[in-house]
Fold this protein.
Amino acid sequence: MIPAVSCAYVGSTGEKEIDDRVMALAQELPGVSDPCLLAEMIITAIRVSRGPVTMGDFKLMNRSLKEMRTANEVFHPYTGYRKVTVFGSARTKTTEPEYQAAVDFSWRMRDHGFMTITGAGPGIMAAGNEGAGTDDSFGLNIALPFENMANEFIAGDPKLINFNYFFTRKLSFVKEADAAVGFPGGFGTMDEVFEALTLIQTGKASIYPIVLVDAKGGTYWKFWKQFIDEHLYRNGMISESDFALFKVTDSVDEAIEEVVGFYRNFHSYRYVGDRISVRLSKEITDDALKKLNDEFGDIVKAGEIKMGAPLEAETNEPELEALPRLVFRHQRRAFGRLRQFIDGVNAAETKSA
């Protein structure tokens, strides 16, 4: 029996007979979690193939979807593990202090339960994989005309993924990470760091720590922040709270604390309409809750911040059901302030067991 499923949003190929055949196929296939969404994807593919699209664009759409599918299959078995993405120059030599700092950072993050994601290339990327070790590393390799060999610490591993497009690769960098750490690098490093900042600042990606790390005494990120101060902030192009979205340091210890401390009590969050459900590892005290309401009333759209049960839409995440929650209607703007709220949650007094 084909289940009665409402798929009004799916759209049409323009031919009802084909639409019905697509829908029947999507509903009959075993193991499909959302037949309506599958039908929509098939119909989209049919419309692209029959529309005004060049062969080059047709191949691009197909290959990008395949790359996203492959990445999802590789990362899926490790869903329960925290991960940190390490960015930095491919030209950094093994003898340079930045390389050694990246090795040290990734090695110590492994001891805190974090796996490492890199671009799989040489330089800082190799340092990240070396420090984490192959078993706790992912490599997101990009095919380039002059350089596309993975470094020795991730080459041949099943967690090495080969990408043809930067945009599908960057999607995995952001989507799969629980933190991002940038070491000194070139255009690519700037691109990746600003991409993460932009997506988090605009609410298109969940907030996570972004740490920009120099070797001890280094000035690369120090002068980068000076540019941010003097040209972006002074000219009103970013807000003061946006500085909460990143940290600049020349201390590996501080970088580790910034990442690990972010998850001291905060676990994750999820939006359901205009409500946000902030999951915690431990419930906070009544006094701490009052303090959060006093300090962060500006991010609340209406009502107040309350301890609450899982929202109905969260039932598809049963592994998180037991976590306490802070629930409120969020303004969905000024995400630097939401980051400061998370910092407040981590500093809040918790109830004893």
In short: The chain has eleven helices and eleven strands. The mean pLDDT is 95. Residues 55-75 form the longest helix (21 residues).
